[in-house]
Every structure is written in C-alpha cells, then in structure tokens.
C-alpha cells in the first residue's frame, strides 16, 4: 500500500471502528490498471446497527472509500429478502474481490444475485469485479444494470457513476 | 534310415523354430495390446450432466415435499437415523439432511449434517446438528444425464485404497478361490468345474478365473470358439505375468458389468453401489456387498430390483460361503441374513428424466467440445435446470392438455414450454412436447408463426420513435399496397375500434392499429428492434410481419422476451453454468452477461402496456384480472393453428406454444390455449408481482382514455399511466392532447438509432442456438 493511502485510510478506519463501523466497505476503485493487492485491503468490522457512522460516503482524491451501513439502516434495495443469505454470499464475494480472486468473487456474487436479483449493490459488485479484470465494457454494462435498479438511491448511483467515470 | 531320421528331426526343428518364432511374435503382439489397454487403465468416463444445485436459505419458497423429491432425484436415502452423507430423515415439518460433498465451479463444498425447518411453504431455518445457524446451504446437484459413447457404459471409478477389504475377500471367495495362487488360468478350477458339470449333467460352475473374466470383458467377444479360448488363456497368463494381483483385482472391480439402467450399462462396483443402494461403496453393509458380489454371476438374473427373491437367495448363499471361509463371523452372518435386500425405495432418480433439457445442453456444448471429450474425459457439466420447476411443469402440461382436449373436444394437442429466470437468463425448465420423453423437441425445433407475440417489438419501435402510451392510434381498416398486391388485415373480432390510446391497442392486440403503427415506424425499424431483442436470423420485410407471419421457435421467442423482461438488457439464454474436469478443475464458465439495448424508460412503458395485457386485455382470462401483477402477450396464428403466450413475473419468464404437429388448425387462441397452461403453471410456481424499477424520467399521471388528456385529479374514466418526462419539467405540462404526429425528432440521448445499432449487432451476434 502506498504511504499516502495508509496515512489516509488508517485514521479513517480507526474512526469508523470507534463509532461502530459498517458491515461492508468498498475498497477504493483505483485508477485504471493500478489494481490494489490484497495487502491493501481495509479490515472489516461489524457493529450493532444503532452505532452507525453517520457519513456514509467519503471521497477524497484517489481514495474513494464507501461505507454501507448495517442491516436495519440499509437502503431497501440493499437488504430486502433472502433472510441474510444474499448478504452473506455477497460478503463472501467481497472478500474474494478484495483478495484478487476475481473469478471466484463473480461466481459467489452471482449466487447472491440469484437470491436477491433486484439488489443494485450486488450488480455493482459484479461491475467492480469486471472492472478489476480490465473488462471495461462489461463493467460498464453491469454498472448500467445496477443503476437501473437504484430506485433513486444516491449512494448506489454515486458508486456507479464513479465507476463509469473511471471507465471513460 | 539314420539319414531319414536326421531329415525328419531337421524338419521338425525348423517347424518348431518357425512355430516358436510365430508364437513368440504373436504373444509379443498380444502383450502390446494388453499393455496399451491396461497400462494405467483409463476408462472412457462419459461427461456427467448435473442440474443446478438447490441453494437453501431461510425465506426460500419451498415445501418439504419438494425438497424430498429433489433429494430422491439426487439418489438420497430416507433412513432413520441419518447415518452418513446422502441420507435424510423427515420429522413433521423438519428434515435432517446430511448433504454430500461436491466440487462446484467455485470450489469444493463439504457435506453438512443439517436440520432444516419449514413453515408456511418456506424454509424457516437451517442449523447444523450441533445447533449452529447457517445462512444458506447448497446441496449437491441432481445428476440428470451422461454423454455416452456407443456402448453406453457408465461407471464411477474407484481406487485400490477405496475398495473395502470385505469386497475383495468376498469376490475372491465366490468367483476365484485360487486367485492369489494361480498364474492367470487355474487348472484346478477348470477340472473342478468340469467334474461338477459332468456330475450335474449341465453347466453349474465356471472354471474362469477373475483374470480370465477380466480379459474376456475387456478384450474379447462372447463367442465360443477355440481361437477365442486360446486367446483368453494366453492373455490371462500375460496379464498375470505383467500385473500385480491387486492391480488386476482393482481393474476387475471397476470393469465388471452389474446391470442395466434404461439406456446405460452400469459398470463397476462404485456405480452399482450408488445405483442399487444410494451409498458410497465404503458405506455398504456386508449383506449389501454380498448382494453385489452375488450379482456378478448374472446381473440380470440376480437383479435386486427385477428379481428380488432370486437375488435374496443368492445373497444368502454368498453370505454362508463367506462364513464358511471364515471371512465373516457368526454374529455378522446372523445380522446380514436377517437384513432386508434393500433399505432404499425404488424411487426413480433424476437420471435421464429430462431429455428435452439435455438436448439444449448438448446443443450448447457441441459448439465448444469435441464429441470424444464428452464421451470419455469424465467432464462435469453444471447446468441451470431446476428439477423442481421442471417436474411441476411436466405435471401441469399433462393436466392442462387433458382438460383442454376434453373441454374443447380436441385431440393430439402438442405443446412446448421454455421457462427462464427473468433476472439472469438461465433456462430453468424445458418441455419438448406433451410427453416429457418427446422424440421431437418442439421447444428448440418447432419453427412456427408467432402471431401477435411480435407486437411488443412493433410498439417498442414506436416508443423509441416518439410515441407514448397515451398516443391516440386509429384502429380502423387499412389497405397496405406492395409489389405482391394489396393486403387488408382485419381484427380478430372482425370489428374496428376507432381511436384508442396506444397502450390499449397493444393490451387488446388490435391488428389494424398495430399495422398502422408498424407502417408508420417502418418495417426495417421493427426488424431492427427484433434483432436488438435477440432474434439473430434474417427476417424478410413483408407488411404481414407486423402481425407475426415470421416463424420462430419457442426458445427464440424466450430470448427476445427476456430482453424486454429484464428491463431492456440483453442476456443470452444459458443452459450451462460451468464445465469442470473430473479432477474438479474449472474448464469453462458461462457467467452472467448483460448488455443494455434499450433506454430504460422506453422499456418501462412497454412493460406497463404488457401488464395491461394481463389486467384488461387478451391476458385477462386467467385468474389475476385487475391485479396487474404479471406482464405478457398472447399470440395466435392464422386459422388458429398456433396458440402462444409469453409472460413473466418478477422471478420467471415462460413461453408456451400449443399447436399440432401436422400444422392443421388447433382451434384455440393464445388466450384459450397457451395462456391457460401458463396461468396454471405460474399459479403454483410464482406469484411474485412484477416489480420494475421506474427510471428517474418516469412520472405517473391520471390519464383519461376518452379525452386523451392528463388530469389534475382522477376521474371515473381515468387511469394511472406512466409518461417519460424531463426530470425538472414535471409541472410544465398539465394537460396534453396528442392529436398531432408524434415527435420524430426527439433527441436520442446518446443512444444510437435502432437501425444503426441493429446493423452492427447483426454482424456481431453469433448463432446462439445453432
């Protein structure tokens, strides 16, 4: 991890943990062809839903750390059915995404999508997986699909727009 | 005299040398054949085809009966208590299930001994037997078929270490007591068999060793000639010379024929163990091992399913022999003799039960794999078939067709159905005819005129060309002139309906209005829309295209409607998820694909109109009138020859065709035929209301279809209708009367024109199902 990121990310994570941080983090989408190694991944912690970090979207120069809140305070598109199976698989897929096992990440997120097909965040994760594989046109298509399910969710729209921006 | 003796001896010597040389060369050649075949013996293992794995999770709509059926398709055993992987036990609304390990495309999933509870036709919880909550549980999939070479052999190869000692000892004791002492052939066995047969007056005992039996099975025919006998003896000696006893025994255990399962031959104890007892070989009881060993003598005569009494008596004899040979003790003998022949029900597995779907899988695979790879490399084909949906479909097809025939006094109705997952394009079920074992797969091959199923493409072209759902369209007689003469289409009810809003023309499937719209937007535009929807064949630009004179197969229709149902995103229909090697290594994966081909708001409007088909149009004949839960379209070809319906809910899409094989009139419309089957099928399958996310540009208005005005407040005749509106322009238009020509110069917001895009697309799309 480069020093700049470490300096920025460490206090951010500390703040999040102290405040009861979120269930899922999106690792910053790096500039094209500068994919992060697994060592760069931010640790994830899980805290009760009533201690949620109030600022859900943080974007700072090359670091675009997006924190999605806990179940219960999540947007309805994020957590709507499947009794937690979809999200459990999604988290598993995220782990592989962060570790660079992109093909495996895709396969597991596809399983999550079979359970919650209208969850725009899962479609976004597919877009991210494609992006990290340098399959940019496919990444864009998944981002469009994710946007089509956003139902006005600003957080999800923002994530997709950021990704599309990088692709362009 | 002496000279003569020398001459004779000389000749004999020459003959002996020549004979020996010839024999040596023959033996060497034979040895090479043996070496080539047996050296690291690799059997041709046909590719195995699996259904989708059932992913259980709390909240999943599933009954305990459906789960049990899936388990039975998958060769699970019902037992009490559950003893090992592959067993399950029912207790009220709870099932204890020990799943089996399986290597999926994303890795090995170990079996879990789990307790699954059900409530209100749903899974309510999943726990391990030790009480740990599980968010999901993926069960090993049903094996639905194999790709056999000509001889249709199937086997599950097991290694020397996996073979239970008792099986080895039993085989030797029953089939070849001198196995460890002879050199391929046993003179002792031959003479013993000879005297036994002479004494009995007929053949009661064979003198073949296990090695001879193996040689016979692998290298020779069953003919009774001296030459074959000679070869058998020679080869047996050579095999014994070159290979250890353990290698010979292991090969025998994997090779031996142990019965027939329909079109496939069951070879080896590994597969036989699963076929007859639904267990791994290592989990068989002594009595079960004795049953299989007893079957070697005559797999058909001693088949536990076909001849249970004869099989039982043979098993008891084997058990007593094992006891006499001190292989099992008295207590084991007593327990084994008392054991029933089998403890599993003769429930038919899912193997080869779904041939129409297998056709689709083969179709897709043959584009990428050689026939020989499919027959011999032990590939695993992981497909998208949902056996629960497929079984429901088969039952519903049978029931509905019988009722329709009786109700309308009809005969020989044929049908085809394709069911997909609306959200990802996976084909979940496929019916090729009224019988599931139909010889002609109509879902893939019946190319029939699609009638009004084409209309959504006409209306979508119009919506991309400036029309709105509220646009007034004329449903009055029209004459279309072309080089072939004049064409005067009529409505199904032979009436014209005056000026109606566009959505109503589609919902009621008005022909005259559709032809007017189609001629206005142009035939090439409609053809381009069909291409964007996923139809990849050439369509001649005749005006009759607008009423569905074009022929398509049910699977092709499903592909085009999939694009509409998934919000304008093209998704290639998929029957296969992945192919792995026999070692579990991922070879090919067919993952999720999407490609946006239509603007979301235009597709949203079309979907709304298709929902109105179900609530107030030609689809209202099924039970859900007024609820606008589903979307779909009926289709009927000329003279009522073809009855179509294509529709979708939130989760599934299905295309139904009904007609006759000889193309004579069926006598049913899309609404009175195909829709009836669709409605009953979805009544059981899926009631999830269609939930299309509205794009930002969509605004809803109260619209009066009599005055064609948007209203400030709802009136008695008004209806809620979606409009595409500039996001910041919602209040700028209060009432609009759209009498004028639709705006053809509307900016396309960055989307290519349909014609241009379709041209490029047609160049690039491969032939999906050819």
Record keyword descriptors for this entry.
heterodimer; A: 168 residues; mainly alpha; 3-stranded antiparallel sheet; 8% strand; globular; disordered N terminus; B: 770 residues; alpha+beta; 5-stranded mixed sheet; 33 strands
Strand content of chain B: 15-25%
Rg calc of chain B: 34 Å
- How would a textbook summarize the main sheet of chain A? 3 strands, antiparallel
Strand order across the largest sheet of chain A: 1-3-2
User: Approximately how much helix is present in the residues of chain A?
Assistant: 40-55%
The computed structural class of chain B is alpha+beta
Low-confidence stretches of chain B: 728-753, 762-770
Judging from the principal axes of the Cα atoms, what is the shape of chain B? Answer: elongated
Order of helices and strands of chain A: HEEEHHHHH
Give an overview of the whole structure.
By secondary structure, chain A is mostly helical. Chain A has helices at residues 3-19, 85-99, 102-115, 120-132, 136-148, 154-167; strands at residues 24-26, 57-60, 63-68. In chain A, a hairpin with a 2-residue loop joins β2 and β3 (63-68). The longest helix of chain A has 17 residues, at 3-19. Chain A is globular, with a radius of gyration of 15 Å. Chain B is built from 23 helices and 33 strands. In chain B, the strands form eleven sheets. A five-stranded mixed beta sheet of chain B has the order 11-1-15-25-26. Chain B has a five-stranded mixed beta sheet with strand order 3-4-5-8-9, covered by helices on one side. Mean pLDDT of chain B is 86; it is low at 728-753 and 762-770.
Summarize the helices and strands and which ones pair or pack.
The complex is a heterodimer of chains A (168) and B (770).
Chain A (H helix, E strand, L loop, with lengths): L2 H17 L4 E3 L30 E4 L2 E6 L16 H15 L2 H14 L4 H13 L3 H13 L5 H14 L1
Antiparallel strand pairs in A: 1-3, 2-3
Chain B lengths: L1 H37 L8 E4 L4 E2 L7 H10 L3 E2 L8 E5 L2 E5 L3 E3 L2 E3 L3 E7 L2 E7 L8 E2 L4 E5 L5 E3 L9 H11 L11 H14 L9 H10 L6 H17 L2 H11 L1 E5 L2 E4 H10 L8 H10 L12 H17 L5 H9 L16 H11 L5 H6 L3 E4 L3 H22 L5 E8 L5 E5 L10 H4 L2 E2 L5 H10 L7 E4 L4 E3 L2 E3 L10 E4 H6 L3 H11 L1 H11 L17 E2 L1 H12 L3 E2 L5 E5 L5 E4 L5 E2 L3 H17 L14 E6 L6 E6 L3 E8 L14 H12 L12 E7 L4 E3 L7 E6 L29 H11 L6
Parallel strand pairs in B: 1-15, 3-4, 12-14
Antiparallel strand pairs in B: 1-11, 2-10, 4-5, 5-8, 6-7, 8-9, 13-14, 15-25, 16-17, 16-30, 18-23, 19-22, 20-21, 24-27, 25-26, 28-29, 29-30, 31-32, 31-33
Helix pairs in contact in B: 1-6, 3-9, 5-6, 5-7, 9-10, 10-11, 14-22, 16-18, 16-19, 16-21, 19-20, 19-23
């Amino acid at each position: 991890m480069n020093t700049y990121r470490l300096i920025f990310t460490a206090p951010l994570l500390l703040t999040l943990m102290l405040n009861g941080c979120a269930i899922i983090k999106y690792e910053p989408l790096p500039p094209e062809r500068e994919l992060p190694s697994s060592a760069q991944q931010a640790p994830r912690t899980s805290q009760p839903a009533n201690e949620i970090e109030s600022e859900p979207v943080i974007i700072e120069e090359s670091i675009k750390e997006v924190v999605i809140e806990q179940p219960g305070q999540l947007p309805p598109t994020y957590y709507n059915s499947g009794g937690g199976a979809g999200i459990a698989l999604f988290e598993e897929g995220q782990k592989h995404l962060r570790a660079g096992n992109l093909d495996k990440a895709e396969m597991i997120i596809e399983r999550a999508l079979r359970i919650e097909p209208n969850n725009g965040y899962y479609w976004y994760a597919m877009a991210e997986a494609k992006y990290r594989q340098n399959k940019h046109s496919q990444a864009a298509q998944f981002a469009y699909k994710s946007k089509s399910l956003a139902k006005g969710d600003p957080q999800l729209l923002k994530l997709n727009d950021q990704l599309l921006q990088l692709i362009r | 005299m002496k000279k003569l003796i020398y001459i004779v001896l000389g000749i004999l010597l020459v003959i002996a040398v020549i004979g020996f040389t010839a024999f040596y060369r023959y033996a060497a050649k034979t040895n090479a054949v043996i070496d080539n075949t047996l050296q690291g013996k690799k059997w041709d293992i046909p590719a195995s085809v699996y259904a989708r794995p059932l992913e259980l999770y709390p909240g999943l709509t599933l009954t305990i009966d459906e789960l049990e059926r899936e388990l039975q398709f998958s060769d699970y055993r019902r037992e009490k208590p559950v003893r090992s992987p592959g067993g399950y036990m029912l207790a009220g609304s709870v099932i204890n299930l020990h799943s089996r390990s399986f290597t999926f495309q994303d890795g090995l999933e170990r079996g879990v001994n789990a307790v699954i509870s059900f409530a209100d036709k749903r899974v309510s919880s999943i726990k391990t037997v030790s009480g740990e909550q599980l968010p999901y549980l993926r069960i090993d999939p049903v094996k639905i078929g194999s790709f056999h070479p000509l001889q249709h052999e199937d086997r599950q190869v097991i290694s020397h270490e996996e073979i239970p000692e008792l099986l080895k000892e039993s085989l030797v004791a029953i089939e070849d007591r001198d196995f460890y002492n002879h050199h391929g052939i046993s003179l002792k066995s031959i003479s013993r068999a000879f005297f036994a047969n002479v004494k009995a007056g007929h053949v009661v005992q064979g003198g073949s060793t296990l090695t001879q039996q193996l040689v016979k099975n692998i290298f020779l025919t069953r003919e009774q000639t001296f030459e074959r006998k000679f070869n058998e003896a020679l080869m047996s000696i050579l095999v014994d010379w070159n290979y250890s006893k353990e290698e010979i025994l292991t090969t025998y255990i994997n090779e031996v024929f142990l019965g027939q399962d329909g079109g496939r031959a069951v070879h080896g104890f590994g597969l036989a163990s699963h076929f007859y007892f639904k267990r791994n070989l290592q989990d068989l009881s002594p009595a079960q091992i004795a049953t299989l060993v007893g079957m070697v003598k005559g797999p058909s005569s001693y088949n536990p399913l076909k001849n249970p009494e004869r099989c039982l008596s043979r098993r008891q004899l084997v058990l007593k022999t094992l006891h006499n040979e001190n292989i099992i003790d008295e207590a084991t003998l007593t327990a084994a003799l008392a054991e029933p022949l089998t403890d599993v029900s003769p429930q038919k597995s899912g193997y080869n039960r779904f041939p129409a779907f297998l056709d689709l899988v083969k179709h897709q695979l043959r584009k990428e794999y050689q026939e020989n790879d499919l027959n011999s490399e032990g590939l695993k084909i992981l497909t998208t078939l949902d056996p629960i949906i497929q079984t429901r479909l088969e039952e519903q097809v049978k029931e509905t067709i019988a009722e329709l025939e009786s109700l309308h006094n009809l005969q020989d109705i044929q049908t085809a159905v394709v069911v997909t997952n609306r959200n990802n394009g996976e084909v979940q079920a496929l019916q090729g005819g009224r019988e599931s074992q139909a010889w002609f797969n109509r879902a893939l091959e019946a190319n029939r005129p699609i009638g009004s199923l084409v209309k959504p493409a006409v209306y979508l072209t119009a919506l991309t060309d400036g029309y709105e759902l509220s646009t007034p369209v004329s449903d009055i007689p029209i004459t279309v002139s072309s080089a072939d003469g004049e064409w005067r289409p009529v409505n199904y009810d032979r009436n014209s309906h005056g000026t109606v809003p566009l959505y109503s023309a589609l919902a009621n499937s008005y022909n005259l209005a559709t032809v007017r719209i189609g001629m206005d937007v142009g035939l090439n535009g409609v053809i381009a829309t069909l291409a964007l929807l996923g139809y990849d064949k050439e369509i001649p630009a005749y005006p009759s295209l607008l009423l569905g004179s074009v022929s398509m197969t049910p699977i092709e229709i499903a592909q085009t409607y999939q694009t509409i149902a998934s919000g304008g995103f093209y998704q290639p229909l998929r029957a296969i998820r992945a192919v792995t090697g026999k070692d579990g290594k991922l070879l090919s994966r067919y993952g999720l694909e999407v490609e946006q081909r239509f603007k979301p708001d235009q597709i949203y409007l079309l979907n709304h109109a298709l929902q109105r088909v179900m609530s107030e149009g030609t689809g209202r004949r099924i039970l859900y009138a007024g609820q606008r839960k589903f979307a779909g379209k009926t289709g009927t070809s000329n003279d009522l020859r073809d009855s179509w319906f294509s529709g979708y809910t939130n989760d599934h899409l299905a295309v139904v065709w009904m007609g006759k094989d000889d193309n004579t009139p069926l006598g049913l419309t899309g609404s009175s035929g195909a829709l009836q089957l669709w409605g009953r099928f979805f009544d059981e399958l899926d009631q999830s209301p269609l939930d299309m996310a509205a794009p930002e540009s969509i605004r809803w208005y109260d619209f009066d279809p009599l005055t064609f005005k948007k209203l400030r407040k709802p009136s008695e005749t008004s209806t809620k209708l979606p409009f595409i509106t500039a996001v910041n322009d919602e209040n700028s238009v209060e009432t609009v009367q759209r009498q004028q020509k639709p705006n053809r110069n509307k900016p396309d917001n960055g989307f290519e024109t349909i014609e241009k895009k379709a041209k490029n697309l047609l160049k690039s799309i491969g032939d999906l199902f050819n």
